[in-house]
Design goal:
The chain is built from three helices and no strands. The protein has 68 residues and is an all-alpha fold. It is elongated, with a radius of gyration of 23 Å.
Length: 68
């Protein structure tokens, strides 16, 4: 970048800089979300039938998986 282009470019404040979460944080969040579904199914089996659990799981997942 030349001096004239640098002067002509609008200044972007440092507060607008996008920060990304480290991969370790993303991995732990994914493991928590993935594992909690199995834990909730195990707890739910005490009061619901397996078919009811699978119905609930697919009903919750359907809006996120299908766009229709």
């Amino acid at each position: 970048m030349t001096a004239t282009t640098r002067d002509a470019a609008p200044a972007v404040p440092h507060a607008m800089k996008v920060t990304r979460a480290p991969w370790q944080v993303k991995f732990i969040a994914l493991a928590f979300i993935w594992g909690s579904s199995f834990l909730l199914m195990k707890i739910g089996l005490r009061s619901l039938a397996p078919l009811q659990i699978s119905d609930c799981a697919s009903s919750v997942a359907r809006p996120f998986c299908c766009s229709c």
